[in-house]
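Lesson 9: reading folded outputs for more than one chain in a single document. The general rule is that every protein is listed as its sequence immediately followed by its structure tokens, and records are never interleaved. Here is the first one.
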Amino acid sequence: MEPRIGTIAAVIDLEYSADLPLNLIVEPGLDRPGVVLADCRFDNAEGGPIPGWLAVPSEPRTDAPAGVVFINSTGDREAFVAEAIAVASAGGVALSIGTVKSMDPVGDGRQSILAIRRAADVLQREYGAGVLGLVGHSAGAMYAGAVSGIDHRFACFVFESGMSGLSYHYRDSPVYEQLRAATPPELFAATIEAMSPYDAVHFVGAAAPAALLFQSARLDIGVTAAETEAFFAAASEPKELRWYDSGHVILDPAVFADRARFLGEHLGLKLG
């Protein structure tokens, strides 16, 4: 499959005022040795507030810690909590969020992209984070791909079970076969047209100098090897692609070790 790469990303306005209030609310969560895990929410640049799990070291740091934003669509904000805690245990700060979900897939994608950037604002403005990393799973990986081309605060990105964009997924994946059949053709075509400008493939080629790690599953019924390779081919260097014997939710222990190695290398954290 040839990625539909064009200049359309240049006309999509994903900017917002740097002074936009976060209105961050942090509530007690779980105490772990050396780490505080807190339930939190903050205002998005558009739409409603974004809930998340915030992991920070128990003892405040005097330097600028590394920060990691995690975003997951399949398992929501809880899916990356253990890895967020690991980041905080290593002296960093981390925020785990889920993708925005409603009955408007186009608006959800736009708001999820903005939510990633606002999560980075939280880590930098409220917790003094310096260098940043971003980890996304599934739709979260695709939205992270969009962020990679427009927000160069991030030094590295991890795309787990991602592909070139949601418009490809809606159009081609067996996961959406029933939805395609039940939707009037004109409405489906209009949805794809509105969704495609936010596809990661329009942005990921401009991610440099950030380092990119693609983590993909050989048994993923929703993302084919060809789709993975097209996403990877569209991305800027430096980049690497690793495969795992797993389904869409990658449970191979190697995926966690590879991700820890990659984040540690690029963020200066001792993970794993």
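And here is the second record, again sequence then tokens.
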Amino acid sequence: MLPYWAIKHSYGPKPRETWSLSETLLVDFTRRVSAITDQAGVQHSTRDPTAEPDKDSLKETRFEWVPGVAGGFCTGVLDDQDVRPLKKVGTFIWERATPFEDEDVHSKDFELEEEDDALNDTPDKSGCEARGDLVGIYFHGGG
């Protein structure tokens, strides 16, 4: 199919005009392979979201359970009686890296730490202590 698609997209429209020919061919190929594996009933191995991973398999992370989304937050299109959120979900946590000793190269990191310290000492409008920790959240889109 690749030669056919290459000719088709060289002379005709692409799904997106901004895509290069190689990007277009890669998307066509991925769609084709996905359709074939779906029709064949091939299941790709995924982690069971209700099972805790083996601690020996964790390299640079640790694993913790956190409460799932409360029912009141599922509104609009997310409020589906056939699909409900899990009671708890697992998350992988990467520890904050220790700063390097070369302050010139990593001066921005130290500026952020000073801002964190200042935020930790300042109460917010609700009277609670503000936290200055940086938090990264990764949402996997699924397939």
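What the second record shows: Residues 2-40 form one domain.
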